[in-house]
Amino acid sequence: MKIDPSTPADLSQQIAKAIRDAIISGALPVDERLPSEAELADQFSVSRPTVREALKRLAAQSLIRTQRGATGGAFVNRLRFEDAYGQQITTSTLLLSMNDVSFATACEARYALERACAPLSATRRSADHLATMRAEIHRQGQPGLTDEAFCASDVAFHRALVDAAGNPVLSYQLAGAVEAMQPLMNMITFTARSREMIIGLHGDIADAITAQDAGKADAHLAELASYTQQLAQDVIAKRDAQRGA
Amino acid sequence: MKIDPSTPADLSQQIAKAIRDAIISGALPVDERLPSEAELADQFSVSRPTVREALKRLAAQSLIRTQRGATGGAFVNRLRFEDAYGQQITTSTLLLSMNDVSFATACEARYALERACAPLSATRRSADHLATMRAEIHRQGQPGLTDEAFCASDVAFHRALVDAAGNPVLSYQLAGAVEAMQPLMNMITFTARSREMIIGLHGDIADAITAQDAGKADAHLAELASYTQQLAQDVIAKRDAQRGA
DNA sequence: AGACGTTTAATTGTCTGACAAATGAAAATT
DNA sequence: AATTTTCATTTGTCAGACAATTAAACGTCT
């Protein structure tokens, strides 16, 4: 494991890259213990603080975990889907907020991805996923629910729909898209009527998944997508009208 | 910006979290300069190395960038889609390799997501994207191409297909799924006949996208998906047979 | 001999102080 | 006025030290 001596600055970045590459290539297998900080400092001919900065970079990506004590040290971490969810959601949220991604674009992506899951969910749905979906639909109908709570339940419903596909790769990819949308969805004020409409469509989707009818599920998801877009357009139109006045 | 004094260990992690939350919440806007390391050390009542470890964690996530010199310091970084691609691909690759995700599962996810893009790509495809797809198809037909190069071209073809949807959120999400598949795809040895078959299907897909025929594009993608699964199963069957012998 | 407390060595977490390198701004010079 | 020089600020790096933690080795008592 060597570092590039051509660019003298940012030693910790170079060391982090060297170790990261070793992990990705498989040279350092999961649960392998890295040399101690002092040994790494010797190997790379740098000081311990510099090594530590490199290790913190890797820890931020969940590539290693550290443990104190006699048998402690830094260990190659098995990256689990659950661990990656959080980072994925953070990154997606920032991407949307920092790049002025329109509601329409984010919404389009989200529903396109969800519709990709629907046929698989219809085939594989378990009783557990169906129960979660029904429970969230029921919650959405409770009076006195804030818009934020309604949105959170909406996210939970869609998460269950995606998880029903039984494919962790899909669940991981969609977690970012669905959760990152929530701040944007929160901008919409849901009237009693629009909530009723959404809850109805959720029911239709749940029914179709229960009946393992992929076509119907897809059709109702398409309806929900266009209705959501419609709601957002109304909000934007109202806001613009107020600005003009 | 405060840190939780209940858990004394891992100060750098707590400080990183505090700053990260400030960025996500928007309290620290893009291009805002953070206080100098010395000032942060004062504010959080820790030493400078601890602050530096926290900053390196954030730098690893591309949340900040640092600059030396008189007017230097740490600045909140605008997270761009291009920057996020790399992290997404790294994470996806490790998730697949470290969690024993089967070829079938990864393949299913990838084609499900791609089929979600197809209707949008058929509508919005530009001449540029079509040209890229045709160019990659041509390259795939060149004699003497290694399996790795064939796979790389395959990835490029599918990237163009996804990018044609004109939705950066979709492109970002799919980048991980498609690129992370490549190491798995590389395990397949492509015979002359299977390459011909794949190139033919790529041609069909490109034709359908050119003709803006979403239905046909979806049908050919489904064909390609099942053919790829078939190839993988053959490889696995052969390997198992050899082991038994 | 076996169970239980104690010591000890290894390792990470944190601090202090220092110097080098980069960099833009201010001051001095032409 | 333009250019060069100086300088203050800030990050990058180093050396050494001590505290906190942890498991293994050791010793002691039953």
Primary descriptors:
homodimer, 245 residues, mainly alpha, Arc Repressor Mutant, subunit A, Four Helix Bundle (Hemerythrin (Met), subunit A), 2 domains, two-stranded antiparallel sheet, 10 helices, 2 strands, 71% helix, elongated, DNA-binding
Question: In words, what does this structure look like?
Answer:
By secondary structure, chain A is mostly helical. Chain A has 2 domains: 11-76, Winged helix-like DNA-binding domain superfamily/Winged helix DNA-binding domain (Arc Repressor Mutant, subunit A), CATH 1.10.10.10; 81-244, Up-down Bundle (Four Helix Bundle (Hemerythrin (Met), subunit A)), CATH 1.20.120. The first copy, chain A, is built from 10 helices and 2 strands; from the N terminus they run H-H-H-E-E-H-H-H-H-H-H-H. A two-stranded antiparallel sheet of chain A has the order 1-2. In chain A, helix 4 runs parallel beside helix 8 (168-185), helix 5 runs antiparallel to helix 8 and helix 7 packs antiparallel against helix 8. The first copy, chain A, starts with 10 loop residues before the first helix and ends with a helix. The interface between A and B is large, with 58 and 58 residues. Chain A binds a DNA duplex (30 and 30 nucleotides) through residues 8-12, 36-38, 46-50, 52-53, 66-74.
